[in-house]
Amino acid sequence: MAITGLFLQFVYMPKAIQVKKLDAEYKNTKKGIAELYTFIGGEENLKDNLIKMRNDVAGLENALPSEKEASNIIKQLNDKARTLKINVISIKPGDLVNYTDGKGSQLKVSDYLCKGMPMDLSVEARYQGLGDFLQKIELDRNPMVAVRKVEMWKDVNILPKIRADIELSACVLGQ
Description:
- This protein has about 180 residues and is α+β, with helices and mostly antiparallel strands.
- Helix content is about 50%, strand content about 25%.
- It contains 4 helices and 6 strands; from the N terminus they run H-H-H-E-E-E-E-H-E-E.
- Strands 1, 2, 3, 4, 5 and 6 form a 6-stranded antiparallel β-sheet that branches.
- The protein is elongated and about 110 Å long.
- The model has no long low-confidence stretch (mean pLDDT about 80).
């Protein structure tokens, strides 16, 4: 009887506890893998879905550049304007502004603060070109830029073109 008690206390019980811990760890790991497959889209097309997710993340990084790379947004806007035969007279970036939600909390993406970079853009263009430019800015999410306000007027010195002042806000991520 004493041998059985010693066996249970020193051999069986420690092994039973270890088996119980390993079983819980196995179930937890299995649950984590199932959640991962649910998120990625299943084991059968894992490679394709991972590549798609990597491309989506890269697109998001381009859509939301860091505040250190905010000057690239100005270059991209200039390039878009040039391809549509828009004459950019000036671009004046403003100070970065933190985005907040309805409760006043700062918005974050992956622990980075979402910030807006206001810009004033003055251009000369034909009506069609200006419309195409504004549409391209709004629809193209690389980088993410919103048109806030557009004022345009005719100038007899540049007919058939018009002058326009455009208020934009570009999204960037910062510390």
